Amino acid sequence: MGNLQLQKTPGKPIFNIKEHAMKKNILCSALLIAICISLSNYAALAQNIDKEALTGTWVVEGTIMGDNGKGWVMPRKHSAPDCGKDHTVFYSDGNSKEVKYTSTCEPIEQTFQWELEDSKLILSKGDKSITWHLLSLENNQLKVGVQMRQNSEHKMYVAYRKQE
User: Fold this and answer.
1) Contact (Cβ atoms closer than 8 angstroms) between residue 118 and residue 107
2) 15 shares a domain with 65
3) Which residues are CB-contacts of 116 (< 8 A; sequence separation ≥ 6)?
4) Cα–Cα distances in Å, from 61 out to 22, 56, 157?
5) What torsion, rounded to 10 degrees, do the Cα atoms 13, 18, 20, 21 define?
6) Residue 145 CA to its chain's centroid (Å)
7) Given 43, 44, 52, 162, which residue has the most CB atoms within 10 angstroms?
8) What is the largest distance, in Å, between two alpha-carbon atoms of the chain?
9) Residue 90: what are its φ and ψ, rounded to 5°?
10) Is there a contact between 159 and 62 (Cβ–Cβ < 8 Å)?
11) What would the mean pLDDT of 74-94 be, rounded to a whole number?
12) Residue 63 in this model has a pLDDT that exceeds 50
């Protein structure tokens, strides 16, 4: 079909169809790439974490300073660092415990139950429960979002490190 051009004056095209089609293809390609990157980031946020991966001992690293779990980790001051680090243990049978140490190095343990529902970890004791929104588990670091109030959209993000 050739290079169709509309001309206002001879030799000066107003509209070049081939050039327009090429620009449109580049724009569509850029948009497609942006959508793919966006969806891959969403998939990373909605990461599936299985029960076996959560089983074990997790030491609190600190609070994540930034938006939506992205940023630097402000280290946590453990209750008695000379005695041991505060930690949580998740057992495969659905039981768990949180351990903190007194100034005399005595461990204080609180027991509770846990269950995994999609990307939420529900911790319960009696009629009380709290939901951890699992953000990611990479390189033995677990990032969770904890709602400050039950119906709040805002979360405080905390990083845990799995003990080997």
Assistant:
1) no
2) no
3) 49, 50, 51, 54, 122
4) 51, 15, 11
5) 170
6) 8
7) 162
8) 94
9) -110, 120
10) yes
11) 92
12) yes
Which is more confidently placed, 134 or 42? 134
Per the domain annotation, does 126 fall within a domain? yes
* 23 and 68 together in one domain: no
Tell me, what's the pLDDT at 31? 44
- Per-residue pLDDT at 105: 95
60 and 76 housed in the same domain? yes
Q: For all residues of the chain together, what is the average pLDDT?
A: 79
Point out which residues pair with 79 in neighbouring strands.
none
Residue closest to 147 by CA, chosen among 160, 126, 128, 133? 133
Per-residue pLDDT at 39: 42
- Domain holding 38, by residue range, is 8-45
Chain position carrying tokens 């400050």: 148
Give the position of tokens 């949580």.
88
